[in-house]
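This protein record is not my work; I was only asked to verify it. The record follows directly below this note.
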Amino acid sequence: MYDFGPFKFESKQDFFDKAIRFWNPDKTRFWQKAGIDLVIGRREGYFLYDMSGRRLIDLHLNGGTYNLGHRNPELVETLKSALDYFDIGNHWFPSVARTALAESLVNVSPGMKYAIFAPGGAEAVDIAIKSARYATKRRKIVSIIKGYHGHSGLAVATGDDRFTKIFLSDQPETFIQVPFNDIDAMEQALKGEDVAALIMETIPATYGFPMPKDGYLGACKALCEKYGVMYIADEVQTGLMRTGSMWGWQAYGVQPDIMVTAKGLSGGLYPISATLVNDRAGGWLNEDGAAHISTTGGAELGCVVAHKVIEMLQRPELVANVGTVTEFMAQAMREMQARHGDIFTGVRQKGVILGLEFSNHPEGAVSFSRALYEQGVWAIFSSLDKRVLQWKPGVLLDPETCRDIMDRFDAAMPRARELLHQAGKAS
């Protein structure tokens, strides 16, 4: 019997059967077929515990949601204290918590004027697109092929066919996609002077963290200025100190007109996201502040947690730790490539954002993800490029855990080779 307070299951298989029956059949079966039988029970810091008690080091972090760790004690206490005074609040009225968080976000985001809140990243992207359309009086949106910006109505149309066609959400006449790192293709898309915005993740996460070429992001911004297009920086996975700067666009010296943050802003405890806009993109807030409303957008409990998140991320000791973990991982990956270069073929890194390339099979990272899982490390492959493993150390990761991770990485290699061999034969 597995007992989770009000939730009880006779066995792990009983749980899986009910997940298939009542929740999501395809997702549940996918992970079982992939050999990942994870059902998260207890969680703490950068560790997950399967419902059966097996410990995993978390290098997925749910896309950076657990940037500061699972159930970070300082954030848990912040939320508990907030419950003595706050609840979701009422979106119609000025709010102490929302205003304080908005001020904090604007203060760490040069060039931004207002913060607009939502419950999650996709809605924040919708707000960004609507703000750009308001400012430019244009409709078209440019994004990159294999990009990803969430699953809501406008956001999903900027993403990969996998997420649009199933719901008849593809709109190729309005949402235009170009290859990443191809500045000529970008200019072709922007020069018609009918585009409202370019939206890009500073480093495209779901595509496997391909790094922007030197000068590419700056050239994209210059083209936006040339053709009157608003530049939207999607910082959902690259923000909050993960590049070594508060925002990824700061690390590359590019000034957006609009930016989006989510996931880690919640501290992993209370859903919240934000769209930050400059004066022009935020003009609608002066004309009709209720043009976009969200009952749970900027829920006051979430604002209190997010305010603490921003404060924690500015602490000198945390900033220094990001640098330490960055350097450790860079050196450790060089050593692993020297030892296992036959299958581990490349590293893409900016700060604690890493994409690990397993290029001798089109789904090489799937095999390595499973081998790591069996060694007690959870890192997920990129959905849109399964040669690449997403590797996301937390910003508070300690040296002992870093070393443990790389020992397990090394130990996983024989099993990875075996799984890759099996995958090669099957294909």
